[in-house]
């Protein structure tokens, strides 16, 4: 029997990036793109490489372009790290696994280097497959933490809980990353919100990223850890946008998210260095009458549009900035 599992791209609706600072967020899963895992029993444990994992190239220029687009690692390190962390979890919780092996392969349609969390989607789908294969139950509220430490502890990837929470819970989720709760229980308060309450949303992502996106130099973490009040205040205001958005959605005032999303991004710009190319994309969307903010760390924006005419304007205007516009499929 072949086990097939899937996890989806995600977009931060409100509150990001306060999630990395014990804040609050609302996120949606974007089912237009996903990562899938196929797993079946075999004599030995085997990970099937995908084209991005291969080490044969047509020329030095082919290798260069491949590294620019995909980095130095494909999905194999993610799969290895996920399997190891799953085994660690089972051992730490006295779960005895049966003596059987498997072959696993992964595929992903999630655009790379635009902040849609393609790496964590692969790991979430992998954990789901391993849980089915070994008949192991991992509490849903704990799973995002396991996925995160797979990346942070095993691979040294900077990662937060927000992306993993929405990819594990799916749909639309309000998250309160209460510091005491995170530190004592390993998870925050996660509340599902009915996606039918959401306004008309668009997502636009850069299709012309020619290389792995470099980290824009920001010292927000260091300033936060030093206790700089300006940074703490702004992050608190960003978190409040998520709480206000939750209230608005539950009270049927989804139009309120228009200004909340714009304010979310404007607050971010007060403490983060945002590249001009990203600001131009935001401004172009707002010039059409839509709201616009980062869906993650950059490369993808999200906002509200009023009607089909405005959506068509977004298609035309954002294409000038090498951005593709989609309507996110949220279930």
Automatic annotation (TrEMBL):
Identify the residues that the record assigns to the GHMP kinase N-terminal domain, covering every copy.
Answer: 94-171
A Pfam family matched in the record: GHMP_kinases_C
Which InterPro entries does the UniProt record give? GHMP_kinase_C_dom (IPR013750), GHMP_kinase_C_sf (IPR036554), GHMP_kinase_N_dom (IPR006204), Glucuronokinase-like (IPR053034), Ribosomal_Su5_D2-typ_SF (IPR020568)
Instruction: Alphabetically list the UniProt keywords.
Output: ATP-binding, Kinase, Nucleotide-binding, Transferase
Q: Which domain of life is it from?
A: Bacteria
* First-tier enzyme category under EC: transferase
UniProt domain GHMP kinase C-terminal: residue ranges: 247-321
E.C. number? 2.7.1.43
Is Kinase given among the entry's keywords? yes
Q: Which GO terms describe its molecular function?
A: glucuronokinase activity
Q: Does the keyword Ion transport apply?
A: no
Name the SUPFAM superfamilies on file: GHMP Kinase, C-terminal domain, Ribosomal protein S5 domain 2-like
What is this protein identified as?
A: Glucuronokinase
* Lineage of the organism: Bacteria, Pseudomonadati, Bacteroidota, Cytophagia, Cytophagales
């Amino acid at each position: 029997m072949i086990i097939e599992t899937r996890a989806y791209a995600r977009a931060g609706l409100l509150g990001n990036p306060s999630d990395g600072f014990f804040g609050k967020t609302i996120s949606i899963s974007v089912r237009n793109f996903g990562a899938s895992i196929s797993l079946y029993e075999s004599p030995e444990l085997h990970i099937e490489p995908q084209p991005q994992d291969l080490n044969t190239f047509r020329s030095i220029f082919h290798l260069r372009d491949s590294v620019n687009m995909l980095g130095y690692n494909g999905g194999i390190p993610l799969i290895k790290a996920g399997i190891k962390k799953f085994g660690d979890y089972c051992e730490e919780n006295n779960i005895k696994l049966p003596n059987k092996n498997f072959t696993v392969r992964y595929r992903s349609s999630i655009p790379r280097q635009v902040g849609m969390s393609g790496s964590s989607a692969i790991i979430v789908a992998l954990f789901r497959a391993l849980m089915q294969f070994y008949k192991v139950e991992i509490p849903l509220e704990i799973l995002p933490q396991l996925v995160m430490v797979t990346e942070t502890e095993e691979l040294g990837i900077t990662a937060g809980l927000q992306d993993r929470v929405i990819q594990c819970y799916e749909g639309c989720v309000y998250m309160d990353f209460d510091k005491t709760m995170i530190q004592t229980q390993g998870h925050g308060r996660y509340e599902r919100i009915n996606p039918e309450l959401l306004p008309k949303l668009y997502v636009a992502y850069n299709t012309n990223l020619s290389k792995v996106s470099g980290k824009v130099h920001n010292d927000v973490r260091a300033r936060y850890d030093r206790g700089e009040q300006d940074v703490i205040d702004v992050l608190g205001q960003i978190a409040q946008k998520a709480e206000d958005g939750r209230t608005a959605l539950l009270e049927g005032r989804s139009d309120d998210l228009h200004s909340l999303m714009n304010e979310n991004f404007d607050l971010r710009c007060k403490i983060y260095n945002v590249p001009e190319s990203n600001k131009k994309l935001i401004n172009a969307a707002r010039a059409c009458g839509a709201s616009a903010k980062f869906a993650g760390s950059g490369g993808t924006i999200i906002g509200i549009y009023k009607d089909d005419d405005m959506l068509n304007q977004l298609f035309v205007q954002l294409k000038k900035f090498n951005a593709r516009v989609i309507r996110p499929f949220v279930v």
